[in-house]
Design a protein that fits this description.
Blueprint: H1 13-24, H2 36-41, H3 48-58, E1 65-68, H4 76-89, E2 95-99, H5 104-115, E3 119-121, H6 124-132, E4 145-149, H7 150-155, H8 157-161, E5 167-170, H9 185-193, E6 200-203, H10 212-222, H11 230-237, H12 243-253, E7 257-258, E8 274-281, H13 285-298, H14 311-324, H15 326-345, H16 362-368, H17 382-402, H18 407-426, E9 432-436, H19 439-450, E10 458-461, H20 468-480, H21 491-505, E11 509-513, E12 527-530, H22 537-544, E13 556-563, H23 567-579, H24 591-597, H25 600-613, H26 617-634, H27 637-647, H28 651-683, E14 688-690, E15 695-698, E16 713-716, E17 725-726, H29 732-743, E18 749-753, H30 755-758, E19 772-784, E20 787-798, H31 808-814, E21 817-821, H32 830-892, H33 897-943, E22 946-959
Parallel strand pairs: 1-6, 1-7, 2-4, 2-5, 3-4, 5-6, 8-13, 9-11, 9-12, 10-11, 12-13, 16-17, 18-22
Antiparallel strand pairs: 14-15, 15-16, 18-21, 19-20, 19-22
Helix pairs in contact: 1-28, 1-29, 3-4, 3-28, 4-5, 11-32, 12-27, 13-14, 14-15, 14-25, 15-17, 15-19, 20-21, 23-26, 25-26, 32-33
Protein name: Helicase conserved C-terminal domain-containing protein
Keywords: ATP-binding, Helicase, Hydrolase, Nucleotide-binding
Organism: Thiothrix eikelboomii
Length: about 950
């Protein structure tokens, strides 16, 4: 989004106060102006569909939340970020974000970089550390936005439930869609834990995969009073092929669920393509013999080296390291041998963090893992078994060390040459990001490339970044950016930023581990090399997404490697490339397949099981074919069509709305930025030098209270150069200036407005030139539905008895002016007071009508919920009626007296049950109506308005 620059104008104190209230007031939740402060603060190129989604999530104050279901790649994180930033600005700061473990750092980085929001990642280690340090309830924190994984939130359910959250966001929420099933422990636990939260946002590209019950499940996570119970939902919507049924369901969910498609936003979100390059290689005989040796070891039914209860998890990691490089698996084998030695030396001191140093994403993978493993049966002679296995592991390690060069490493050199030629053809910078899952493989690749033409621009990036080169890069970077906003003060964060900047400015190849590369943006790089190919499609999408993202100007080349001698490796690649469509096209993985796998860790487990159990090529092919068939069964054409009918709007309707949002956002953003800069240039006229391009050099502070909070130097809105400080509404300097302008007492004064100096034609004010009159500005605060909105009422009349209509009084206050007389006694104007009263009454009617529409929407929801429950009760009686008829038929044709008597007795029992159910039906229907009426009474109480009015200033005006 382009930001317009304006000449900075000096304001009168009255205009400064008017601007300050305009910039900080609480606007109506359904208006674009409610998001304006957040738009000014954010460092994003905002797209109109994101504004639309944020307004949808924010609109109805009675709603308990929404599902934002845009297709993959449209920036749902930004949509939620807008709402989070707005809540934060409103001082509603108990905010929880629950995400898959591998997305935690990405969320942290996005909220910090784009919205300037402070975040805290909570996980078991730092949670316990905080509690030991005296923080009894780490979740109950208003200084930071809390980010945690699904597993962690479930494990700390009691502590999560104890917090009165202002907002909870759940990403990849399709993981919870089967909450109605008793076996989905995480989903059911989180639903119960978060039932008291009044504002939730669920983010998922696949709210509906293979059953309408999934939609029921997701909506119930937001609000249990949208639909009745599960059986009544099945009864009503089980026949989803009926158009009237779908229309009814669409009407019911439309206030809670919003979906935008890629094709609808193409003119606003230009994406480049992905170009795949496959580099095939064949390992040497020594490499194949070694791999077979380790593979057979991993397939043994009993292994002493693996911790109890972690057999599957550790095996998964070892299979990955084996595929990475001999250097990676060699280190892991040594770790396992040392662990066995420790078992013999002192079992009580056994370290449970096996392979943490070998595989950086171990913590994250373990956190997503459900412990389903069987504990290994212990042999009779444990010590002898341990010694034997330890000897084997050390032998494996020796064999691995003897293999110095890896065939895949040589293939990398060939692939780099091909890929850089492709970048040259595309006109892209010659930069490559190489991903590996192992730090030891990272070191091997560093040594491999160091003496080649890529060596001079080589840089490593991992979870610790503690190597000498990284420290030197950080030191130089910190000196260069000293005194600017780029230096955060956190050495970890600043080292990451320094390495990315080095790669952008000087580097040619970055070798990154999985854990290290989470959350960084590399849209200046257009070559992604998967040296190790993860089995988790979500991880691959995340890797490629470091480069193939909004802001990327070139097509992105994606390089993968396949071992021709390994049937399982070939099948994994085929599955990821063809079924998941990860490596080519405009957007990468489709919604259908990403939704079908649910948790990526579960999918990895299924592939690991094939490696673990299948030896022969035909067994491997058969197992992968079954896996593909299983995926295909979860993606039905009928359900895809159902999703379209339920969740998607006509393109024309969407285009019209997005076009309006694009224009309105641009206008509002420009106006707010202009007001802020005009207010700032007035307040800092003697303290700063303004350049007229929404930037200034701060040379001194207007008060000592800002000392330590506000550095001197260059400021920009928005920031265009890395060396400038970002100026925004939330900056401490801006907050101080706004507070000062709002607090000042303004006596009556005479102001002369210079129409010619404004520079833009205001047609409706041209007829007023050469006249004068009285103007009054008031602040109207209206509280209802547990929220406050503020409006500026400005009215003006001229001395000839004419009222300035519509927004002309507001326009008048934007024109350059000077105070010509103060203090001054102004005559009372009944005409002015009458106009103010009319404006106030019209505004209160508008607010009341809007709130009534929210009330009606909630009443409709409660009516639907009550009707659903009654339908469920009536269905029970209908089922008994059907059973009675069947018993009568059976009794009529019974061949013996005993059988007839048996069925007559059964009929009487059912009739007694029916009579009891009918009485129960009436009682429970009354209970439901009573509950509904109590809820509506609650809503009516919340609708009551509290109105406060404050005169800001009264002036005599003259327009020349």
């Amino acid at each position: 989004m382009m930001t317009q620059s304006f000449p900075n104008l000096l304001l009168t104190p009255h205009q400064a106060q008017y601007y300050a209230w305009q910039l900080t007031r609480h606007a109506a939740s359904n208006s674009l102006e409610s998001l304006a402060p957040t738009l000014v603060n954010a460092q994003i190129d905002l797209n109109p569909h994101q504004v639309e989604a944020a307004l949808f999530a924010y609109e109805n104050p009675l709603s308990k939340g929404v599902i934002l279901a845009d297709e993959v790649g449209l920036g749902k994180t930004i949509e939620a970020g807008l709402v989070i930033a707005q809540r934060w600005a409103e001082r509603k700061r108990r905010i929880l974000i629950i995400v898959p473990a591998n997305l935690r750092k990405q969320w942290h980085q996005e909220l910090q970089d784009k919205f300037g929001l402070p975040c805290l990642l909570l996980e078991s280690k730092n949670y316990n550390t905080l509690q030991k340090a005296g923080t009894r309830y780490p979740f109950d924190n208003t200084d930071y936005i809390i980010i945690g994984s699904y597993q962690f939130a479930k494990s700390k359910a009691k502590d999560v439930k104890a917090v009165d959250w202002d907002l909870v966001v759940m990403d990849e929420a399709h993981r919870l869609r089967n909450v109605y099933k008793t076996g989905n422990v995480i989903a059911r636990t989180l639903k119960e834990t978060l039932a008291h939260v009044h504002s939730k946002i669920l983010l998922t590209a696949t709210p509906l995969q293979n059953s309408l019950l999934e939609l029921y499940g997701l909506v119930s996570l937001i609000d249990d009073r949208v639909f009745g119970d599960l059986e009544s939902f099945r009864t009503q919507f089980g026949q989803a092929n009926r158009e009237t049924t779908l229309q009814n369901l669409r009407h019911r969910i439309s206030p809670f669920c919003k979906r935008t498609l890629r094709r609808q936003v193409q003119q606003y979100v230009p994406y480049t393509k992905r170009i795949p390059i496959l580099e095939e290689f064949t390992p040497t005989q020594d490499e194949r013999d070694f791999s077979n040796l380790v593979a057979e070891y991993l397939r043994r039914p009993k292994l002493q080296a693996l911790p109890d209860g972690q057999r599957q998890l550790i095996s998964l990691v070892l299979w990955k390291l084996l595929a990475s490089s001999t250097h990676a698996i060699a280190g892991a084998l040594e770790t396992m041998a040392n662990r066995l030695q420790a078992t013999l030396d002192d079992p009580d001191k056994l370290d449970s963090t096996l392979l943490d140093d070998d595989y950086e994403a171990m913590d994250e993978t373990a956190e997503e893992w459900d412990d389903e493993d069987q504990i290994n049966d212990k042999p009779l002679n444990v010590r002898e078994a341990i010694q034997q296995e330890m000897g084997e592991l050390r032998l494996f390690k020796e064999k691995a060390d003897q293999i110095r060069d890896n065939s895949k490493g040589q293939a990398l050199l060939l692939a780099l040459a091909k890929a850089f030629k492709e970048l040259e053809r595309l006109g892209a910078a010659k930069k490559a990001i190489i991903f590996t899952e192992s730090k030891r493989t990272q070191s091997y690749l560093q040594n491999l490339l160091r003496d080649t033409s890529y060596g001079a621009g080589l840089v490593l990036f991992n979870g610790t970044n503690s190597d000498t080169q990284a420290q030197q890069i950080h030191k130089a970077w910190a000196q260069r950016h000293a005194g600017t906003d780029k230096v955060s003060g956190s050495k970890t964060a600043d080292t990451r930023a320094a390495l990315v900047d080095f790669f952008r400015e000087q580097g040619s190849v970055m070798i990154a581990t999985e854990a290290g590369a989470e959350g960084i943006n590399l849209q200046f790089c257009s070559l992604v090399i998967n040296y190790d190919l993860p089995w988790n499609p979500q991880r691959i999408e995340q890797r490629i997404g470091r480069c193939h993202r909004y802001g990327q100007k070139h097509d992105v080349v994606v390089v993968n490697f396949v071992d021709l001698s390994n049937e399982a490796d070939k099948r994994v690649y085929e599955l990821l490339a063809q079924k998941f469509q990860l490596f080519e096209g405009v957007f990468g993985a489709s919604d259908e397949v990403l939704g079908a796998i649910g948790s990526g860790i579960d999918f990895e487990r299924r592939i690991a099981r094939i490696y673990q159990t299948c030896r022969k090529p035909e067994e491997i092919r058969s197992s992968f074919a079954a896996l593909q068939q299983e995926l295909a069964g979860e993606i039905t054409e009928a359900m895809t069509q159902t999703r379209q009918l339920l969740l998607e709007n006509f393109d024309e309707e969407v285009h019209a709305k997005l076009k309006k949002h694009a224009a309105d956002s641009e206008t509002i953003l420009s106006r707010y930025e202009r007001m802020l800069m005009d207010l700032t240039s007035t307040a800092l006229a003697t303290h700063a030098e303004f350049s007229g391009d929404n930037g200034f050099n701060l040379q001194s502070l207007p008060t000592s209270t800002l000392q330590g909070q506000v550095p001197l130097g260059r400021y920009e809105l928005p920031r265009r150069s890395g060396e400038a400080h970002l100026y925004r509404l939330g900056h401490p300097l801006a907050e101080w200036l706004l507070a000062q302008a709002k607090q000042i007492h303004l006596p009556p004064a005479r102001l002369r407005f210079d129409y010619a100096a404004y520079g833009t034609r205001l047609a409706t004010l041209e007829n007023v030139r050469g006249t004068s009159g009285i103007l009054q500005a008031r602040l109207l605060s209206v509280s209802a539905l547990a929220q406050e909105e503020q409006h500026l009422l400005v009215a003006a009349v001229d001395h000839n008895g004419n009222v300035l209509a519509l927004d002309d009084p507001d326009k008048l206050l934007r024109i350059p002016a000077m105070v010509t007389a103060t203090p001054i006694d102004l005559p009372d104007s009944p005409l002015l007071q009458h106009d103010l009263a009319q404006r106030k009454n019209a505004l209160l009617r508008e607010i009341n009508d809007r709130n009534l529409s929210y009330f009606d929407q909630e009443v409709q929801k409660l009516d639907g919920w009550a009707d659903d429950l009654k339908l469920g009760l009536e269905q029970e009686i209908k089922d008994i009626d059907r059973e009675i008829k069947e018993v009568r038929r059976t009794a009529a044709i019974a061949p013996t007296l005993d059988e007839k008597l048996h069925w007559q007795k059964r009929q009487r029992e059912l009739e007694t049950k029916r009579s009891k159910s009918r009485r129960e039906l009436f009682r429970r229907q009354d209970d439901i109506d009573e509950q509904r009426n109590e809820l509506i009474t609650e809503l009516e109480d919340r609708l009551q308005q509290r109105v406060e009015e404050q005169i800001l200033f009264t002036i005599e005006w003259e327009l020349v």
